[in-house]
Design brief:
Helix content: 55-70%
Distance between the termini: 31 Å
Shape: elongated
CATH class: Mainly Alpha
Strand content: under 5%
Order of helices and strands: HHHHHHHHHHHH
Number of helices: 12
Number of strands: 0
């Protein structure tokens, strides 16, 4: 006689991770956003090798020229190439945004994972700190510190990272609160697995879409904050270019028919934020599906 085991089996953590976390890579929005982002990064960092024109080189006789073969995006009032200035201005913006988002992601994942799993007093204090930090606009401390100290890249990275980590910690904590009650987590604990191993081995891998979504939001927020801060003059001093100062200068000359002064940096900034938001939306779509094992 064959005995059939009818007991309900707990879903394995590996199947749960495979059915949800890595399905984010099958999203067309993700690849479109990544492709656009990589293209912008390539233009800013590798573009000068194909268009070796200094962003500070002055060509007085070529001032205020519209786009042409020699100057594809035209020139400014001093004859400097707009294309060279757009490529150089994007470098610092992207580097600071990525560095600040990385610091915010590391801190946010650590706090959110530990608060969601441990709970208790630490969780209540962490949630209160998140609410306080999120209640302050990111631009305010950046303006204060820039006026009191210096507007160096290190200062910007520290301030933006310190004010955006709750954007990562809150969704991570919410996900951990739902995952920690799943059967495979309870099974691992019943077998004597340490809480640190449970968090690192069974919970952290399921956070891939949430972390990707939150990190993308942090990068997008950092780009917007940096662009706004540069608009108010918190950036590298002239003559070094940045997109926001180029937009501001071009808008002041909007009635002088030099439309290419502000269109090129504005389009570059919009495409950068748009590409990052597409990646975030793809990850968010996977997060909304829930984590039921298959």
């Amino acid at each position: 006689m064959v005995v059939t085991d009818t007991r309900e089996r707990a879903p394995r953590a590996g199947r749960f991770r495979g059915s949800r976390s890595w399905s984010v890579w099958h999203r067309p929005l993700l690849w479109i956003g990544l492709g656009l982002f990589v293209g912008i990064v390539f233009l800013c960092f590798a573009g000068p090798h194909f268009y070796p024109v200094s962003p500070l080189a002055v060509h007085v006789t070529e001032a205020r020229r519209p786009p042409s073969l020699r100057f594809p995006l035209g020139t400014d009032a001093l004859g400097r190439s707009e294309l060279a200035r757009v490529m150089f201005g994007g470098r610092l913006l992207i580097l600071i945004a990525l560095a600040s988002a990385l610091s915010a992601t590391i801190l946010g994942v650590g706090v959110g994972l530990f608060a969601g799993y441990v709970g208790g007093t630490f969780d209540r204090v962490a949630v209160w700190v998140m609410d306080v930090v999120l209640s302050v606009p990111q631009l305010v401390p950046l303006l204060l510190i820039a006026f009191l100290l210096t507007s160096s890249p290190t200062t910007m990275i520290g301030v933006i990272g310190a004010t955006t980590w709750p954007l990562v910690a809150r969704p991570v904590r919410a996900h951990v609160l739902s995952v920690r009650e799943r059967p495979y987590v309870a099974a691992a604990l019943s077998l004597g697995t340490s809480p640190w191993r449970v968090m690192g081995r069974h919970i952290l891998p399921t956070l891939a879409p949430t972390i990707l979504m939150s990190a993308s939001n942090s990068v997008s927020t950092a780009v917007v904050v940096l662009a706004t801060a540069s608009y108010f003059g918190i950036s590298l001093p002239p003559p070094w270019p940045n997109w926001s100062s180029m937009i501001a200068h071009g808008m002041h000359q909007i009635y002088s028919n030099q439309w290419w002064w502000w269109v090129s940096p504005a389009v570059a900034l919009a495409l950068l934020v748009f590409s990052i938001n597409m990646v975030s939306e793809a990850a968010h779509a996977v997060s909304r599906q829930g984590g039921s094992p298959s």
